[in-house]
Amino acid sequence: MPPSPRPPLLEVDNLSIAVTLPGARRVTAVEDVSFSVDAGEAVGLVGESGSGKSLTLRAILGILPPGASVSAGRVRFEGKDLLAGNEAELRNVRGRGITMIFQEPMTALNPVVRVGEQIVDAARGKRGWSRKVARAEALRLARHMGIPDAEACLSLYPHELSGGLRQRVMIAAALACQPRLLLCDEPTTALDVTIQAEIVALLASLRAELGMSLLYVTHNLALLAQLCRRVEVMYAGRIVERGLIADTFAAPSHPYTRGLVRATPDVDSVVDTLVGIPGSAPPLGARPTGCSFHPRCETATNACRTGDFPLRPLGNGRASACLYAERIGGLAGAGT
Amino acid sequence: MTAPLLSLRQVSVTFASRHGGGRIKVRAVDNVSLEVKPREIVGIVGESGSGKSTLARVIAGLVEPAAGELVFDSADLPFRKRPVALRRRIQMVFQDPYSSLDPRMTVRQQLAEVLSVHRLVAPRAIEAASSALLEQVHLPASILDARPRQMSGGQRQRVAIARSLAVQPDLLVADEPVSALDVSVQAGIVRLFAELRRKLGLTLVFIAHDLAVVRHLCDRVAVMYMGRIVETGATDAIFLAPCHPYTRALLAAIPRLRPAGGAAQLPATGEPPSLVRLPSGCRFRTRCPLAFATCAETEPGLVSVSDQEWHLAACHLAASAELTN
Amino acid sequence: MMAIPFAGGAARRLHRRRPVPRNLLAGGLVLGTIVCMALAAPLITAYGPTTQDLNNILAGPSAAHWLGTDELGRDVWSRLVYGARTDLSVAFVAVLSPFVIGTLLGATAGYLGGLIDALIMRAADVVVAFPFYVLVILLVFLLGPGARSIYIAITVVSWVSYARIVRGGTLVARNQEYVLAARVAGFSGPRILLRHIVPNVVTQAIVFAMSDIVLDILAIVTLGYLGLGIQPPAPDWGEMMANGQQFLTSHWQLSTIPGIAVVITGLGLSLLGDGIAELLGTG
C-alpha cells in the first residue's frame, strides 16, 4: 500500500485514559493507543464491552464522562494538538472539523426542541448563517438524509419520530457544518436491522460524496465490513490488531480477532460452527499480567504470561500484538 | 405424526394505547397460530413492533391474550390462574441478564428459593441440587456465593438458565437471551441451549431479532411482522428459499463478514408503519418493493408456498406463484 | 466444554473495598457520642434530672453544676442528658412505626394496583392535604399529651411519604425481569412482594427515614415546647426551652443549650442519613 501523500487527518498518539472507580481507585481504562485516520477514509474501531473504544472516541472530542481523564498521549487533528489546546480552541474544532453521532438518539437530541430547530441550531452555531439560510439548509439536509416528508418531519419533536428517523436527524445535524471527520459511537446498535442497513448505506454514500472521514465504533464485525476499509481491534484498553478489513477478517493474526470472527454467526452458512471465546473480558483495573488476552487464549504459552506485547508491524499496513501473529495469521515469516 | 407440545390457536393480544387524545386498542399480536413439537427448537424472529416478545410472554403466562387459546400437552392452558404444577412446565429466560436476577440475593439463595418453594428436593439436598444445576450450565460451584453484580453478563445468563431448569420444565421460552451479550459470549449460550435440548429433551421457543443466531440453533422459524406471522417453515427452507418479501428484506439487511452473493437481495424501503394505524390489506405493502393492487385490498393469509412441508407465507405474490407451479 | 474461569475473585475484591463515606463517619461519630452519653446518663451526671434544689435556683455554671441550674434548682446538664434519652428514644420509635406501615401499604398499592392502589393513595392524599404540624398537634391535643399520643399522631401523618416512595419503587421493580421470572417460577404474590420487591426497594425508604427522624425530633421538641409533648417530670428539650424562655434575658443558657443540643443532634442525623444514602446508593 503506497503511503498516503497527505498527513493523516486525525492522529492519536499513545493515548491513555484513566478512570476513577467508586472507592477512589484510579485505573487505566485505555492504554497507549495509537492510530490514525486519513482524509476521506473510513476506519472501524471494534471491541466488546470494556475494551475502551467509546472512551477513546470521546477523548478525541474532550467529552469524557466525569471521573475519566486523559493521563497521557496526544490527539492531533490536522496537525493541531486537541488535548493541549484550551476549551475555546476545542470548541472551534467541535462541530466544524469533527462531529459525533451517538447510539441513543433519544438522549442525544433535546426532547423539548423540534428536530428542525436542532438542525438549524447546529448550522447557525457554526457557520454564522442567518435563520433563513440555515432553515433552507436544514431542509436540504433532511431530504438528503432520506427523511420522508421532510418539511413536516422537521416540525416534530424527537419522541414523535421513530428510532431510525431520529438517527437520520442526528446525522443531519452532525453534517450541518460539513465536518471533515465524523465520529460514530455505535449509532445503529439500538436500531432494527432493516433500518440499520439503510443508515449504514446512507453513511457510506455520504462519505463517498462529501469525502468525509469516518471513525466508526462498534462491536459488530460484519457491520464494519460494510462500511470501513481499515480496522483497529481493541481488547481491554489496548489495540491488539490492525489492518485492512478484508485481510484482517479473512486471516486474523491475533487470537482475539480470530475468536471474534469465529463467534460472529454467519447467516449464509450451512455449517454448524459457532465458537465463542471462553471466559470474559477482565474488569477495569484487573488486567492480567503479560498479554491481557492470555487467560482466554487457546494458543497461549508460558511466554505469554509475562512481559509487554506492543503492536508489531507485519507488513501491508497490518500489525498485531500477539507473539505468534505470523503463525496465527498464516503469514510469511511464520516458522522460518 | 407426533402431537405438538404447545399449540397456539389464533392468539391475539391487545394493549390500550393513549394516542392523540383518545385511547386506541393496539393489536400487538394479531391472530397468531403456532405449533411446537416436543424436543423442537422453534425460532421466532422479528424487529421491534413485531409482537414476538409479547407472544413469548403469553406462552409463559405473563400476559393475557384478548382472544385465542393455548393447548399444552393436549390440555387447555389457562391464562390466568395457571396452576403451579402447570407453571412449572413452562419457564422463561429473559433478555437482560442484568435485571433478570434479584440484585440482592446470592446465586445460592436464588436457586435454593426455587427448589424449596416447589419442594423439589429435601432441604438438606438443596446444596447438592444447586451445584448440579450449575454444572448443567457449566458454571463452577464457587459461583453460588456470588451476587449478580459480581458476575459477567454471560455468567448471569447461565444462572438465569439454571434457575429456570430447576423446576424441570418441559418447555423453555427464551426472549432474546443473547441479544444483550457480547458476541464472544453469545456462542457459548447458544451452544448451551442446543446441548440442553440434546441432554434433557427440552423444547425451546427462541425469540430473536438476529437471524444469524437463529440459523445456528433452530429447527423451524416463524417470522413476525407487526403482530402477525408472515412466514414459517423449516430453517433451511426459510434461509435458502425465503418466500415472503419481508423475510427476504431481513436477510438482505444483515451485514455479512464476507460479502456473499446473498440469495435474492431484496431490501425493504422506508419506515415501518405505526401499530396504531396499520396499512389496509397486507401490512408490509408500504415497504414492499413487489406490492401490487391486491396487496392493498385484502390481507393475505398464511398459505403453503412450496412443496416443503409446512412452509407457509402470508403473501399474495408467493401464493399465486405457488399456484402456478 | 471448557470450564469458564470465574472472575469473582477480582470482582469481589473490587467491590468490598468501597471505603466508608465521610458523612457516615462524621454523622456516626456525632450521633454515637450523643447516644453513648444518653445511655451512660447515670454515670456522667451527679444529680437526677428531677432532683430539685430550691436553695440553688438559676445558678450559673460551676464545678458542681456544669451548666448551672434551672428555676427549680434542677441540674441543667442532667436534664440535658436525660432529655436526650427521652427525645431520641421517642423519635426512634416514632419513625419506626410509619416506616413499617408505610412500606407495607406502599408495596401493596404498587404491586396490586387497581382499587387497592387507588384507596391507599387517596387516603394518602387526604392526610397530605393537612400541614404536618397542624395535624400532629391536633391529634396530640385530642388524644391527650404524652408519648403514646405522639407515636400515634406521627404515625398517622408520616406513613404517607414512605408509602409513596415504596410504591414508586415497587412500580418500577414489578416490571423488572427478575420479578417476572419469579412469577413464571410460580411464586405467590406475597412471597414476591416480601422477598423480592421490598428488599430491593426499602433502601430508599431507609434513607428517607434518616431525614424523617430529624423531623420527628423537631416535632417532639416542638410539642414539648407547646406543652403537648412528653409530660413532666420526664425531661425533654422542648420543655426545657419553653421553661427557659422567661429567663431569656438573664439566663439565656436555659433555653439556648437545649436548642443547641437539638441542632447538633439534627446535624448528626443528617450526616448519618447522607452517609447511609451514599453507602446504599452505590450498592
Write the layout of secondary structure elements.
The complex is a heterotrimer of chains A (336), B (325) and C (283).
Chain A (H helix, E strand, L loop, with lengths): L9 E12 L3 E13 L4 E5 L6 H9 L6 E10 L2 E2 L5 H7 L4 E4 L3 H4 L6 H13 L3 H14 L5 H5 L8 H13 L5 E5 L7 H18 L2 E6 L2 H7 L2 E6 L2 E7 H6 L4 H9 L48 E4 L2 E3 L4 H5 L7
Parallel strand pairs in A: 3-8, 3-9, 6-7, 7-8
Antiparallel strand pairs in A: 1-2, 1-4, 4-5, 9-10, 10-12, 11-12
Helix pairs in contact in A: 4-5, 4-7, 5-7
Chain B lengths: L5 E14 L2 E15 L4 E5 L6 H9 L6 E6 L2 E2 L7 H6 E4 L13 H11 L8 H11 L16 H13 L5 E5 L7 H18 L2 E6 L2 H7 L2 E6 L2 E7 H6 L4 H9 L39 H5 L5 E2 L7 E2 L2 H9 L1
Parallel strand pairs in B: 3-8, 3-9, 6-7, 7-8
Antiparallel strand pairs in B: 1-2, 1-4, 4-5, 9-10, 10-12, 11-12
Helix pairs in contact in B: 3-4, 5-6
Chain C lengths: L7 H9 L5 H18 L1 H4 L31 H37 L1 H16 L2 H12 L3 H27 L3 H8 L4 H37 L11 H9 L7 H29 L2
Helix pairs in contact in C: 2-4, 2-11, 4-5, 4-7, 4-9, 5-7, 6-7, 7-9, 8-9, 9-10, 9-11, 10-11
Descriptive tags:
heterotrimer, B: eight-stranded mixed β-sheet, four-stranded antiparallel β-sheet, C: about 280 residues, mainly alpha, MetI-like fold, elongated
Care to describe what's here?
The complex is a heterotrimer of chains A (336), B (325) and C (283). Chain A is of the alpha/beta class and 336 residues long. Chain A has two domains: 10-97 and 180-329, P-loop containing nucleotide triphosphate hydrolases (Rossmann fold), CATH 3.40.50.300; 106-178, no CATH class. Chain A has twelve helices and twelve strands. Chain A has helices at residues 53-61, 87-93, 105-108, 115-127, 131-144, 150-154, 163-175, 193-210, 221-227, 245-250, 255-263, 325-329, and strands at residues 10-21, 25-37, 42-46, 68-77, 80-81, 98-101, 181-185, 213-218, 230-235, 238-244, 312-315, 318-320. The longest helix of chain A has 18 residues, at 193-210. The radius of gyration of chain A is 21 Å and the shape is globular. The two termini of chain A are 24 Å apart. Chain B is globular and about 70 Å long. In chain B, strand 9 (220-225) and strand 10 form a beta hairpin. Chain B has eleven helices and twelve strands. By secondary structure, chain B is α/β, with parallel strands linked by helices. In chain B, the strands form two sheets. Chain B has an eight-stranded mixed sheet with strand order 6-7-8-3-9-10-12-11, with helices on both faces. The model of chain B has no long low-confidence stretch (mean pLDDT 86). With 283 residues, chain C is mainly alpha-helical. Chain C has a single domain, classed as MetI-like fold. Chain C has eleven helices and no strands. Chains in contact: A-B, A-C, B-C. Chain A binds chain B through residues 48-49, 148, 162-165, 192-198, 200, 219-223, 225-226, 249-250, 259-270, 272, 274-278, 280-281, and chain B through 47-48, 152-155, 182-188, 190-191, 209-213, 215-216, 236, 239, 249-260, 262-263, 267-268, 270-272.
